[in-house]
Each structure stands twice: as structure tokens, then as C-alpha cells.
Design brief:
With about 280 residues, the protein is of the alpha/beta class. It is about 45% helix and about 10% strand.
Length: about 280
């Protein structure tokens, strides 16, 4: 009997210690949003904060991680203000960054979407969506900017309703999420809606919207050639999308460290700058 009592007492004390440890850890990470530096997607939180700042610069870059290689959102040059971050926030996330930037009182004359072609297929349906989109952007501040298409897609993400629970929000845990079979080769439904929304903002705020392709590995040429271009004619910006697809450049696979990101991107930055001109 005494042995059982000791075992139960020890187990209870152990559980209490573990519980206290997690409470202290979560509280520490939650204080002043420290967790934003310890979980995947740090560049997203940086971009959100930066999107709310005032700047005199007239050229804004939005982009995925390949765009961020050329225009690092933490290392602006003299004329370009970069909010490039990651494709996993979907085009809705990039629209939110643009809207923040405009609401801060900034008046760009040019906005460049610097993306690789396959980033436009994102429909908030990959394993990074939980960390990169839900945690930083599925909030009271931004939900009003989300269409029914976005809200419906969010409900397909496992445990989406848990994303702001403290022990989940401050941890590196995320559910595994396999996207459904896609019936499109280029533009996802969400990308189509929000690129058109960006185009509408350009008319309201008097800036030019440009779509700039980043450099792609040669092994993907066939896949890009098979893109169903009829998809772009269903949008209000078919002309911009046509120019985008016709300006994709390729480099040997050996130039990329993972098939997507260039090993030495700054060597080729002038190619992107020329496209922007």
C-alpha cells in the first residue's frame, strides 16, 4: 500500500512539475510575442510589422521566398521597399500586406509581385499554411478581408480553430496537411480573387501593378510549358498574366540549391531589375 502511495505521489509531483514548466515556458514565449522568433515563419511577422510603417519610397515589392532572395525584406535598398516573404501566406496574405501598406498612408507609384510561377497555385493548402498564414493572419484584424472562398478553405485545415491556443501558437507543432487534387495548373481560386483585388487597389490608389517572374530551373521548363493558359482569360488581368508567363527565364539546375532557390541569387538580381524596368 505504501509503495502504491509513493508511486502515486511521485507521479503527481512529476506531472505538476511538467505542468509548471510548460506554463512558465508558454508565458515566457507569449510575453511581448517572443514566440514569433522561435517558430517557423519569422519573416511573416517581420513583414506584417513593416507593412504598417510609413516610408517615402515609391516602389514596393511583394513576393514569395524566391522574391525575398532578391529583395530581402530586412535589407531594403535606396529605392525599393520590400515586403517579400513566403508563398505559404497565399495571395490573400500578400493582399493584406499591401492593404496595410496603403492604410499606413504610403503612396507607391509601382507595386511589383515578384513570384515563381508555381506560387500562384497556392490555395492555403500546404503544410506551412498553419504557421505562415493561420497564426499570424487568421485574426480579428484581418478576417474581414477574407472572402468566402478563403474562409471555406480554412475550415479544411486540421485544427485551424486551435491555432491561437497559447500552447499551440507558441510551439513549433503543426498538423500535417495534404492538399486536395488540384483542378488548375497555374492560378488557384484564392490567387485569382486576390490578384484581381490588388489590381482594383491599383486603380483606387493610382499605382501600377506589375507581375515579375523569378528565375526557374531548367528541369521545370516542360511543366511550365504545359500550364493551361486558358485559366488566365477568366481573370480581369489576362494581359498582365500573359506578359508574366512570356517573361520567365531559366537557368541550369546546378544554379539552385533545392530546385527552387538560387544558390547565389544576387548574381542574377540584375535580370529581375531589368524586368522591373
Amino acid at each position: 500500500m505504501k509503495a502504491i502511495y509513493k508511486f502515486c505521489s511521485f507521479s503527481l509531483a512529476f506531472l505538476v512539475l511538467i505542468g509548471c514548466y510548460y506554463v512558465v515556458k508558454v508565458s515566457y514565449l507569449a510575453y511581448d510575442n517572443r514566440y514569433q522568433q522561435t517558430i517557423p515563419g519569422r519573416e511573416i511577422y517581420w513583414a506584417i510589422d513593416k507593412s504598417k510603417k510609413k516610408t517615402h519610397k515609391k516602389k514596393l515589392v511583394l513576393g514569395d521566398s524566391t522574391g525575398n532572395q532578391f529583395f530581402n525584406n530586412q535589407l531594403d535598398d535606396d529605392s525599393i521597399y520590400s515586403l517579400a516573404c513566403n508563398q505559404s501566406i497565399g495571395m490573400v496574405g500578400h493582399y493584406i500586406l499591401l492593404n496595410n501598406y496603403l492604410q499606413a498612408g504610403n503612396k507607391p507609384d509601382s507595386v511589383y509581385l515578384v513570384f515563381r510561377p508555381f506560387s500562384f497555385a497556392n490555395n492555403l493548402d500546404d503544410n506551412y499554411t498553419y504557421h505562415y498564414f493561420l497564426k499570424p493572419l487568421y485574426t480579428e484584424e484581418y478576417i474581414p478581408m477574407m472572402t468566402e472562398t478563403v474562409k471555406k478553405q480554412i475550415t479544411h485545415i486540421p485544427y485551424f480553430w486551435l491555432c491561437h491556443f497559447p500552447t499551440v501558437q507558441t510551439s513549433t507543432w503543426a498538423p500535417k496537411y495534404e492538399h486536395e487534387e488540384r483542378c488548375y495548373s497555374f492560378l488557384s481560386p484564392i490567387s485569382r480573387e486576390y490578384i484581381e483585388k490588388m489590381d482594383s487597389l491599383s486603380k483606387v490608389h493610382n499605382f501600377e501593378l506589375f507581375l515579375i517572374p523569378t528565375i526557374v530551373s531548367e528541369s521545370l521548363r516542360d511543366k511550365i510549358c504545359k500550364i493551361d493558359t486558358t485559366e488566365i482569360y477568366k481573370t480581369n488581368i489576362a494581359d498582365k498574366l500573359q506578359v508574366y508567363l512570356s517573361n520567365i527565364e531559366f537557368l541550369p539546375d546546378t544554379c539552385f540549391w533545392d530546385g527552387t532557390h538560387l544558390t547565389h541569387p544576387l548574381i542574377y538580381k540584375k535580370i529581375i531589375i531589368e524586368k522591373m524596368r
